[in-house]
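Anyone else keep sequences and structure tokens together like this?

Example one:
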Amino acid sequence: MDRKIEKPFWTTQKILMSIATTAFVVFVVYLLAFRDRSSKYYVSKNQLSIAVVKKDKFQEFIPIDGIVLPRTTIYIDAIMGGNVQEVYVEDGAMLRKGDKIMKLVNTNLELSYMEQETRIFEAINNLQNTKIALEQNKYTRQRETVNVMQDIEKLETQFDRQCQLYADSLISDETFEQAERDYRYGRKQLEIALQLQSLDSLSTIHRNKQIDQSMDRMVENLSLLKESLGNLYVKAPADGQLSSFNFEVGQTANAGEHLGQIDMPDGFKLRAGIDERYISRVSQGQEVTYTFGGKDYNLYIQKIYSDVNAGMFQVDLLFTNDFPSHIKRGQTLQLRLKFSSETDALIIPRGGFFQQTGGNWIYVLDPTGTYAVKRSLRINRQNTLHYEVSEGLSEGEQVIISSYDSFGNKDKIVFKE
């Protein structure tokens, strides 16, 4: 009799189908759960600037440009206006104090001087005549006093005789009384004459003193007039080099106009402009460095100008010791204004990445060197060469420091072979 043959449940076909289904499910789960969903940007590695995070000495500073100026400058301004009649020296000449630079001519000033001089001489002459008159009055008073004294002597002699005659009863009472009245009157006249002489003497002394003072003032005014006329000769106010002088014969120089300057031979200073953002961090005595030929020259801030123009304020700087022999007036030197001393720090070189990230994140290379991923970081201080990293990176790691313009804010940068 026939026997029914049962077919096995796990056939080869079912086993293969189960394996395929399981593999598909695992693949789908992998895609859904474990696949790298981060956005990627593919770029050739040699197109990027890659730097190593390292620990080294760091100093915060900013670059500033300083213009070389004479340490001491004396400005020459026109005290009196006029036309240039003669020019005695040229720009750049070395001068001694008092050397003539140029001569101005001012006809109106000269005529005014002559008129005032004439009036002053007339006033002085009148005062001298007044002084002579006072002296004459003094001698007149003295002569009057002498005459009165002479009359008194006569009256006194006559009165003495009358007294003797009256005692001998040789003259009448009336005659004696008249002689006595004449004598007292004469004495009174002498007292008045002496008082007038004393009063006139005191008045004469006082008026002579006033006249002398007035004459002295007039002589001083005359000297000032002569000095004003002498200001038409422009002279060097000190020893030094004449600069910024460019006047020619025939030009007009107005009163108060800047004519030039004398640069004193006592060294140089530098004047630099600094961004107003740093005004609270700049102080007198702050250190500045200039490097030339492998040698550092130290300077310090000597003066800070408080005015802010176009977002900049200015400072004057002096060399601490010697200054470079090659520098010339008007030359521009690149300096480093220090905000801190050198300290050990974790640093990375400056790069274009900062413009896109603001220093808040950076692409860090995987140890395999095949890709780079975003990582947050914190940048503390900076200078023209490096950023100081205070958080987010470790020594020896590699980072992309070139511009991120083309990356489109991707999460991962994959390097193409």
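And example two:
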Amino acid sequence: MISKKEVKHIAKLARLGLSEKEMEKMEKELSSILEYFEKLKEVDVSQVEPTFHSVPIENVMREDEINAKRKEQSAKLLYLAPETKDGYLKVKSIFKDGSN
């Protein structure tokens, strides 16, 4: 089903150095894989729903709410910071803009 020329081309694309014996083996193995795909084409899947995952998964979301304890911790950390601005830590700029 697959030719030696195609095996050489695939080996070249994959940057594989194959001996003649390995090429013959790959030719047989790739052909058998392609034959199996041909068998799969015969299966009637018209009644099967398409799936993206083998198990049903769902995003688990929580409500966006303010946690009082974390708000207290944030306030303490901001109090200890050397510089703050509008409730955030103020840090030295790491990017230079062209205006300076």
